[in-house]
Each structure stands twice: as structure tokens, then as C-alpha cells.
Specification:
By secondary structure, the chain is of the alpha+beta class. The chain has two domains: about 150 residues, Orthogonal Bundle (Arc Repressor Mutant, subunit A), CATH 1.10.10.10; about 70 residues, SH3 type barrels (Roll). About 40% of the residues lie in helices and about 15% in strands. The protein contains eight helices and eight strands. The strands form two sheets. The chain has a six-stranded antiparallel β-sheet. It has a two-stranded antiparallel sheet with strand order 1-2. Strand 1 and strand 2 form a beta hairpin. The chain is globular and about 50 Å long.
């Protein structure tokens, strides 16, 4: 597959993990988060054209509601791309000591070139990790489907004031946002206490080890947590 097609499959898999079957416009908006070096077209015309090509190749279907859905073949190809991308992220962070905020964009440069044999060696060297540095699942050979939210997982925007939660997953596609999350240590495995869910202000206020942090409601909806 072309690099562009692999990036489309990666994006569709991530959106499906988040419970979204996107329209062309939603997919185009998401693709704009991919590093510009990947040369992924993000205009409505270019996205529509790629979706049509992927439909002919049996990778996606477009529903009557114009939602783009992965086919069984698309699922298999998408899991492979996601697996290469997330194991690349793990290798960059855990072995090569790349700062976590840079690993996501750098993984795009590696995912297209890693062979199946090399991928197995990387996975073995890493000790078969379950998640990427940002908390998303790493698929194994033979896995089926794309995983959604696990039982007990909820959006930070749905949390209750005064309660404590453990961060499970953070958004990794937006570099400035990721830098902010890293700087404030809002990362998988960290515990936070909710001070206020201020919907009228559009923010979630929380404490992390005594430090006050505010997140916009849209960002909080993309952070996954479980009760501490």
C-alpha cells in the first residue's frame, strides 16, 4: 500500500477506537494532525478521491449515512499499520530515549519501512507491551477487530468532581497539546483528582500531585480514565 493509504487506515482505526465512524469532512479534519512530511492530502477533494480508491480496493465501505467504515480486509490492514506505528513509538521512547512528545510524529517515519520479521524482533525486545506510550492498545498477530473503550474506562469530561482517577489514554496527534500534557504530567498511569467539571466555562479543573491543571472540555473528552 502507499504511505497515504496506510495513514488513512491508521486514522480510521484510531477514530473507530474512539467510537467515531467519520464522514469525509471529519476524516479530512483528523488527517490534518498527521505530520506534513507524510504528504497526506487533506482537502475534501483529495480525501474523497482516496476513499473512492480504498473502496474499490475493498478496504472501506461508505454507508447510506456517508460514514466511512473499514471492511474485514480494511480491519486487518489497519491493525497491521497501527501495530507497526505503536511498536515504533514504544521503541523510540523505551529504547532510544526519544522524548514522549516527539515519538508520535517520528513513528510515522518508521511505520512504513518495518518488515514483519523486524517487527517481531522489536516486539520481543520490548517485552510484548500491551499499550503505546499514550495508552492506546498494541494489537498482536491474530487479533480481530478494532478495540473500543474497555469496561470501566470513561472520558475525563464525564468524571465526577471530588473523585480520583488514573489516566489511561491521552491524545497524541496534536503536538502542542501533547507538549502541554507532558509538561503537566497528564500521562497514562498518573493519578489526578477532579476539582471541578465546569461545563459553563468549558473546562475541567484537576489536581495532579498538588499542581492545578485545567483542560478544555474538548480535550478532556479525548482523555480516558478509570476510577482510582
Amino acid at each position: 500500500m502507499s504511505r497515504a493509504a496506510e495513514n488513512y487506515l491508521l486514522s480510521l482505526a484510531i477514530l473507530q477506537e474512539d467510537g467515531v465512524s467519520p464522514h469525509v469532512g471529519q476524516l479530512a479534519l483528523y488527517l490534518r494532525r498527521i505530520p506534513i512530511e507524510e504528504e497526506v492530502g487533506t482537502t475534501l477533494a483529495s480525501v474523497s478521491g482516496m476513499v473512492q480508491r480504498m473502496t474499490k480496493e475493498g478496504l472501506v465501505q461508505v454507508s447510506r449515512e456517508k460514514q466511512i467504515v473499514l471492511t474485514p480486509e480494511g480491519h486487518a490492514r489497519a491493525r497491521d499499520v497501527v501495530r507497526r506505528h505503536r511498536l515504533s513509538e514504544r521503541m523510540l521512547v523505551d529504547i532510544l530515549d526519544v522524548p514522549i512528545e516527539r515519538a508520535e510524529s517520528m513513528a510515522h517515519q518508521l511505520e512504513h519501512a518495518i518488515s514483519a520479521e523486524l517487527l517481531e524482533r522489536i516486539e520481543h525486545k520490548l517485552g510484548f507491551p500491551e499499550t503505546c506510550p499514550y495508552g492506546r492498545p498494541i494489537y498482536r498477530e491474530g487479533d480481530q477487530g478494532i478495540r473500543g473503550d474497555a469496561p470501566g474506562m470513561l472520558r475525563l469530561s464525564e468524571a465526577k468532581a471530588g473523585a480520583k482517577y488514573v489516566i489511561l489514554r491521552v491524545p497524541d496527534e496534536d503536538f502542542p497539546l501533547l507538549c502541554y500534557l507532558v509538561e503537566n504530567e497528564i500521562l497514562p498511569g498518573r493519578e489526578v483528582e477532579i476539582e471541578d467539571i465546569a461545563s459553563y466555562r468549558g473546562v475541567v479543573d484537576l489536581h495532579r500531585d498538588g499542581t492545578h491543571v485545567s483542560l478544555g472540555m474538548e480535550v478532556a473528552a479525548r482523555v480516558r480514565v478509570r476510577a482510582a
